[in-house]
Records
---
Amino acid sequence: MTAPTRVLVCDDQMLVRTGLVTIIGAQPDLEVAGECGDGRTAVDLAARLRPDVVVMDVRMPVLDGIEATRLLAGAGVAEPGKVLVVTTFNLDEYVYRALRAGASGFLLKDTPPDRLLHGIRTVADGAALLDPEVTRQLVGRYAARIRPPEEQDPDGGPLTPRELEVLRLIADGLSNSEIAATLMISQETVKTFVSRMLAKLGLRDRVQAVIYAFRHGLAT
């Protein structure tokens, strides 16, 4: 039998944390490795418990979720962990910063339980997760303010026209199946384009691809 995915839950609101722990713990393929209410404890527990996924709030005492994410999954971390940020809509700027800090994705706190569980499993499998309903609002709203003009590259740099098209659709929040339907190609072909695009740009996952697209003027 496959070992269950071990999840560390970090949220300073006890009611929210208890709800997350209850939902996750009820799944046969998931296991709550631990829980805490601040980012510093999350970093310490992650080092000791080695969870497969950390479900992370943003605003917390002692150390906020953004800095905790950077310590767990940011650039320079020898063995980066997988962090799924779960936040409220009015924290969209913080979510953008959390993604840049190394988070594998985000969901809203009012997301249905089945989508939360899908998100945990998706991140655990090594894929990035962007909530398609709010991707453009969360990232796009702040892109113009934080994208340095000298870094804009409307031609897409080394990408082919089709790879550039795939990148723009990813930035719109589309999944591989939705991109395949839009471009009328197979999902396997989409996966090939995504892999090539990430390799050419030196990006780790779809989250970084979305950030790249907005920072370089390739999405609006």
---
Amino acid sequence: MAGTLYIVATPIGNLDDMPPRVAATFGAADFIAAEDTRVTMKLLNFLGLKKPMVSYYEHALQKGEGILRRIEAGENCALCSDAGMPCVSDPGEVIVRDALARGIKVVPVPAASACVTALAVSGQDTSRWVFEGFLPVNKKQKRERLAELQGEKRTVIFYEAPHKLRTTLDDLTAAFGPERSITLCRELTKLHEEIWKTTLGEAQTHYAENDPRGEYVLVMAGAPAAEAEEELTLEQAAQRALELTRNGYAASAAAKAAAQGTPYSKSEVYKQLLALQAD
């Protein structure tokens, strides 16, 4: 009889937030699939447990087949990420998808999630929101992703590492303007936890002068209703696209972004953009 794949959330910072069921699941599992075995080892030491572990991090997902075979042979596996709910913006999603396709029982063992925790304390609109996770590293892909979010009315949540925060704030400010509201949540539940609601422009200025430290969740307000619904002329839409090209967007991506929320197609804005560039 096949075993079970448990998707186990771990504390996002403070180990005192460990739910009893999470600890019990680790204790009952035959082995643990960890994003980083070194991080999970610290957690197991805190719980006083010793368990066989295998890593499933992004560049070792070929091990996913071995994990699934062990479960099919009757072992129970507890899969966890370094912090929070695994398989969300995490390579473990591949193992879950394949497990379900093979008829393996998958059981969630929930606890804190950094994105929901940050949203709850952000002071931004929580009624409708969209999770973007980590933005692409590739500059072109990043600009295209941000272009897709032009006119997005829902609150938008990003994850970011400290060494990339300045660049991301620069890109967000260029895409959405310095007045857009944003809440930066740093080191949630840890000793140096910080929650700062400000604007993109102020955050950009602050971190130009101060080194980012710790892991960040960025909770950005959606486009104001008036801004999202404002009817622009074709020339105004093209002018918006022109501004985006000056901030590094390709003409096609800029036209696509500027066309959102308007009655004009991407091709119409693109043609008018070329006309402006020719002037």
---
Amino acid sequence: MKPVTLTTDRLLLRPFEPSDVPAVHTACQDPAIPRWTAVPTPYGLDDAERFVGTAVPEGWRNDTAYTFAVATRDGGTLVGSMGLVRLDRLRTVERQAELGYWTAKEHRGRGYTAEAAGAVVRWAFRELGVERMEWLAEAGNEGSWAVARKVGFRREGTLRAKLVHGGIRRDLWIGSLLPSDLPREPAPAGCATAPAQDPTPYLPHPR
């Protein structure tokens, strides 16, 4: 699929560009990101270059992951990454995809991630024909769940020892979002800034 660009009141969700490499590298130095996501640790500049220059465009080209750079419309500052993964299930009777994201530490607590997530899931339901959106995060990732809950996800339970992270089996929380869970219209401008619980970042992060 050819990459697309989405907009919200405050954000531009666009393809990653080579100029994003330094910001991605800097963001992933935050210990919370490798703790809760699948990014390599330590995270080097070459990892950022592979993510921006190889993993993201290949995901779009091969229809395996649609990953957006989340940037502010006012100034173009990179806020984080938002994407749809496990798209192989989209082409089956399951009609499913999974939402993943991480947010740079200095941009958490402003509602940016929920605002971006709302735009991506609406696009996925409307344009891609997704019928069920899943969210998964390691058990204990309260920040990620706060964002998912605000978007409308309903938690369905815990998958015991589902994830292997750092050589250790860990439990996963799972939630789902259906088109009928969304309001007819997006929330009014400004509502996305309410909670101060923007995420501890969330898996996965394509490599």
